[in-house]
Amino acid sequence: MRLKDKKVIALVSEDFEDLELWYPVLRLREEGATVHLVGEKANVTYKGKYGVPAESDLSFQDVQADGYDAILVPGGWAPDKLRRYPEVLEMVRQMDQAKKPIGQICHAGWVLISAGILQGRKVTSTPGIKDDMTNAGAAWYDEAVIVDEHIISSRRPPDLPPYVRAFADVLAGEK
Length: 175
Known about the structure:
This protein is an alpha/beta fold. 31% of the residues lie in helices and 22% in strands. The protein has 6 helices and 11 strands. It has helices at 18-30, 78-82, 86-97, 109-115, 130-135, 160-171, and strands spanning 7-11, 34-39, 45-47, 53-55, 58-59, 70-73, 102-105, 122-123, 139-140, 145-148, 151-154. Strand 8 (122-123), helix 5 (130-135) and strand 9 form a beta-alpha-beta unit. It is globular and about 35 Å long. The relative contact order is 0.17.
């Protein structure tokens, strides 16, 4: 279990993309990581775009980024909500400053844009926010997964296997 001592924040809000939250969470747990679902409030059930529920373990206020090894931002419409919380943006900035893995898929790039951490980075996302990503100073590529140091980005659900593999590799210190 190469991730047995790793702790990961998985952000959650209404209308997350079901697979983009649960596939990484389950795969990382399978490799031994502790993954906490973190939402605006603790112990609240959020519904994904397709109705799959996710109950938050902790609230944004309960979490200190320095107590975690990585953060995951799912896609769907949740990123448009998540980027409105100063606590979320601060968590992402702290992870970036500490060079801890930040995973973002699909529309999750909006959170990284609002956190102001994409200048000069290589990324991918859903093509629908390509302009947003490049306007934030990132170099955008139409590839399944891009690893730029500690930022791991992906386009959409069909890219989940290489995305989560790359994220786990970076978290394990293997990339």
